[in-house]
């Protein structure tokens, strides 16, 4: 039995560049850019649980310093 924990801590810079903007706005903008560039070819509305969507978005936000810390503990 394992406990898998993923933690994300993001702090805003000021009233304009908030943590909410970084964790919601940036991924949405990145996804839109990926669609416009043809890197995501899905059509219609999708929850981002498909690797085709979340892998490139997570890679892009990690390049901006937004990363999850993961821990796996044997129970």
What does this structure look like?
With 75 residues, the protein is of the alpha+beta class. It has two helices and two strands. It has helices at residues 19-36, 51-63; strands at 2-7, 69-74. The chain has a two-stranded antiparallel sheet with strand order 1-2. α1 (19-36) packs across α2 (51-63). The chain is flat and about 45 Å long. 0% of the residues are buried. The model has no long low-confidence stretch (mean pLDDT 94).
Oligomer: single chain
Outline type: flat
What is Rg?
15 Å
Low-confidence stretches: none
Order of helices and strands: EHHE
Computed structural class: alpha+beta
The largest beta-sheet arranges its strands as 1-2
Distance between the termini: 5 Å
Range of strand content: 15-25%
Number of helices: 2
What secondary-structure arrangement, pairings included, does this model have?
Layout lengths: L1 E6 L11 H18 L14 H13 L5 E6 L1
Offer a quick outline of the entry.
The chain has 75 residues and is of the alpha+beta class. The chain has helices at 19-36, 51-63, and strands at residues 2-7, 69-74. Helix 1 packs across helix 2 (51-63).
Note the main attributes of this structure.
single chain; 75 residues; alpha+beta; two-stranded antiparallel sheet; 2 helices; 41% helix; 16% strand; flat
């Amino acid at each position: 039995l394992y406990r898998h924990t993923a933690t994300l801590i993001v702090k805003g810079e000021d009233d304009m560049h908030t943590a909410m903007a970084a964790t919601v706005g940036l991924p949405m903008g990145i996804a839109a850019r990926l669609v416009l560039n043809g890197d995501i070819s899905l059509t219609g509305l999708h929850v981002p649980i498909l690797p085709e969507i979340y892998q490139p978005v997570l890679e892009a936000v990690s390049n901006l310093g937004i990363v999850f810390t993961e821990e796996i503990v044997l129970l």
